[in-house]
Amino acid sequence: MTFLAALRSALRALAANKLRSALTMLGIIIGVGAVVTMIAVGKGATERVQEQMKGLGSNVMLVLPGGLTAGGVRLGAQTGQALTEEDAAAIAREIPEVQVAAPSMRTAAQVVLGNTNWSTSIFGTTNDYLEARDWPLAAGRMFEAAEVAGSAKVAIIGQTVAQQLFGDADPLDQVVRVKKIPVTVVGLLEKKGQNALGQDQDDMVLVPISTYRNRIQGGSPGKLKRVGSISVKVREGQDMKAVEESVKELLRQRFKVQPGGEDPFSIRNLTEILQAQEASSRVMTLLLAAVAGISLVIGGIGIMNIMLVSVTERTREIGLRMAVGARGRDILVQFMIEALTLSLVGGAIGVAVGAVATWAVGQFAGWQVSMTAGAILLAAGFSGFVGVFFGFYPARRASRLLPIQALRYE
Fold first, then answer.
1. More confident residue, 288 or 56
2. What is the mean pLDDT of the segment spanning 217-240?
3. What pLDDT, on the 0 to 100 scale, is given for residue 277?
């Protein structure tokens, strides 16, 4: 018997029991659909974390003032001894593994342009902040040294602020007011999107840190050099944990902390946190795919069960075919084709179901999903393997029937 003849015979046998064939494929359909959907959800989560890492900047840690304890009461983060610009300069100068250390201060304020206004975050910082965050300019320029030294009234704005105030117009060289202080827009940042907390990173205005202190904040002279945080960017290829310890040791020396004393600051290794989230997302993707793969195995058991029933029902047919010249190999091929057809057709339908489910999850649940060709091929290939693996035993059993015994079967 040729392969085409065996294929036609197998398809006729499946068509003769349409409902049973459809129910047999149901397990494969559910399994493949679940695998495709779960991998898409897990892949989307991983990509989301990677986007957050890209938006944050690579190899970045954040140094913050620590908590203050008064009368046994801990007053919370950033209530203790403040960091200063000199601390940032010392970190960049004395730790060779540090690329830049950018001091920054932050507040919220209204930015006004004519009769239009927008509430946003105002950052007082230096050009090193953009280098630490891997944040290029879409247009314009960065701050000049003379502007930073002289508290110049200049600003770099994010895409959200530009859209809210200027719409499609060019914001460069336009004057806006920040807390009634007129500042000239000299640069426009590239779009960053949301951070890990869902906050819009493009909703911000950068001004020189000296401008922030002297014109916007208007603090007392004793606090002129204090900053709210220091963004530290570590050079590529360096051990983040080792650099973190070096920064901690340097600051303890500068703050004259006694051995065993509590650090008056805190260091957050943001890259390490996001890398841990990425690893967790990958593990979750594998676990979800493994759980979904169990459905495929159950579907394979269903195929084997139905194929065994089919062999029993068609015992006399098998005996008759073998009596007129069919070989055991021909019977084996026919039943294997039946099992493989059930699994592949079920797999194809399962891929379509998985695609629809993936779209629904992204559309209605609002999750980021990513369905790749690799996931589809993996699910379809596994469904074919299930058909071959679980269909082999029934097919082999049918091929080894003796014609005389099969013809006598009632």
1. 288
2. 77
3. 64
pLDDT level of residue 101 (50, 70, 90 thresholds): very high
CA angle 210, 213, 215 (to 5 degrees): 95
First-to-final CA distance of the chain: 26
Q: Are 363 and 11 in contact (CB under 8 A)?
A: no
Q: Which long-range contacts (CB under 8 A, 24 or more apart) does 148-153 make?
A: 148/208, 148/209, 148/210, 149/210, 150/210, 151/208, 151/210, 151/211, 151/213, 151/214, 151/215, 152/208, 152/211, 153/181, 153/182, 153/183, 153/184, 153/211, 153/215
d(CA 377, CA 385): 12
* Contact assessment for residue 46 and residue 275, using Cβ atoms and an 8 Å cutoff: no
In this structure, what are the phi and psi dihedrals at residue 372, rounded to the nearest 5 degrees? -110, 160
> Which residues, including other chains, have CB under 8 Å from residue 86's CB and lie 6 or more apart?
225
What proportion of the chain, given as a percentage, has pLDDT over 70? 84
pTM tops 0.85: no
The Cα–Cα gap between 344 and 8 comes to: 16
> Phi first, then psi: what are they for 106, rounded to 5°?
-145, 145
Q: How far apart are CA 217 and CA 310, in angstroms?
A: 83
Please tell me what DSSP assigns to residue 381: H
* Residues 189-199: b if buried by 16+ CB within 10 A, e if exposed: beebeeebeee
